[in-house]
Amino acid sequence: EEVDGYRMVQTMAAEVQIMMQHKIDAIKRIMELAENIALDHKYDKERGSRLAEGRYVYANAKKLNVLPDGDSGGNNEFERYLSQYRDPSSDYYEPGYTRLMLTPDPHFSGIPVNTTRSSVHVPTNVFDGEPKVINAIDWSKKLDDIFRDNYERDPSLSWQYFGSSTGFLRQYPAIKWLTYEDDPDMYDARMRDWYIKSAASAKDIVILLDTSGSMTGLRKEIAKHVVINIMETLGEDDFLTVLTFSDET
After folding, report:
1. What is the secondary structure of 71-119 as a DSSP string?
2. Distance from C-alpha of 191 to C-alpha of 186, rounded to nearest angstrom
3. Cross-strand pairs, 163
4. Tens-digit pLDDT profile for residues 51-67
5. pTM attached to this predicted model
6. Angle at the Cα of 104 (from 64 to 95), degrees rounded to 5?
């Protein structure tokens, strides 16, 4: 049987176009809802204090399903997780920690997830009790409805994200963010290429670096660190020139 290669390519292109349109539509729904709920949100400057006192809770991915130090094991590990939802007199009560049922899902590479809600990653250098941060975390939880709706509309969707300018990342489905003592968590969504490209236009940057005799020791290291941090925020559409100068340029 003769195969019409041109028609086959046309069919494949149409299918890819439909698939990509579904993804674009999902992103637009997240964007539109985020704009609306951010405008409608009632700012509460005391929300951070309530978080510290255990009177407010959100699903912090790094404080999700955490066992207390010295846990001796035993049956029903879920019951031993630290949780803010317990009675304060419980040995397993801890403000800021939550429990959530996570189930391995083959659609998400077998990673334990909860498809009923999202979880939040807060960078190590961001304080979640700061009013602007915790208020943004609070209003963005309403995105869970659109995350679920997107997934129901298009089961081929995998992870969905909302990156905030305050630093946190809301991720659907909910997942536990693994941390290790010998490998500190340095992830910050604002430093990722996908965030930078969507939040800023192409840049043309010139950096003047002082290499004179006064730039030694700590001063030199700080300068190098600043330049490296700037470079890490650049994408393939950006242009960078580094000029050094000392007594003479």
Report:
1. ----S-GGGGS-BTTS-TTSTTB-TT-B----EEEGGGTTEEEBTTS-E
2. 10
3. 169
4. 999 999 999 999 999 99
5. 0.78
6. 10
